[in-house]
Amino acid sequence: DAKTTQPNSMESNEEEPVHLPCNHSTISGTDYIHWYRQLPSQGPEYVIHGLTSNVNNRMASLAIAEDRKSSTLILHRATLRDAAVYYCILSSDQGAQKLVFGQGTRLTINP
Amino acid sequence: NAGVTQTPKFRILKIGQSMTLQCAQDMNHNYMYWYRQDPGMGLKLIYYSVGAGITDKGEVPNGYNVSRSTTEDFPLRLELAAPSQTSVYFCASSSRDPGKQYFGPGTRLTVT
Lengths: 111, 112
Hints:
A: four-stranded antiparallel beta sheet, B: seven-stranded mixed beta sheet, 11 strands, about 50% strand
């Protein structure tokens, strides 16, 4: 599986936008880019996923570079509840999604 | 919908004991997964299933067994528990479409 690289930690302030980067230079043409987050003492929670085009949903936006070698998860207006570990994961579009979790980015939100 | 449920929430086992972690989903998902998460680390895939009667190994299957007799249930069996199996275990499910796995709340297992 292609690997992803994320910063270990980031910090932001409440009600400000947050941009979480992810590098995936060995991504293949059929790999989807997934983002999950894990709040303290909970299971991971799906955030968003995309293939080539930018994606928006009620939780976040996903901006994908034109060459697909990097992507950015955008939280438009962070709240304290967004403090979590964010995982950027690549997975094939075929069959079972065998997600490979790295160590992710620990996001701290300051009040 | 309850989503993905796991029982028990916590369990302490002695070395050499066996137990079954239960997982159930009510979303009629074909795909189900078992992951483990060691302290400070990301999740690792133990086993997965693409439908009733079909299972396959993930990244770290040693010491575990699974079965999938129904669409809803995907139990994980630990035989001869070892301290290295102390971890938090998460079950997940997904539909055929790529993306969006739904995770259960986890089972925290300690082997002493």
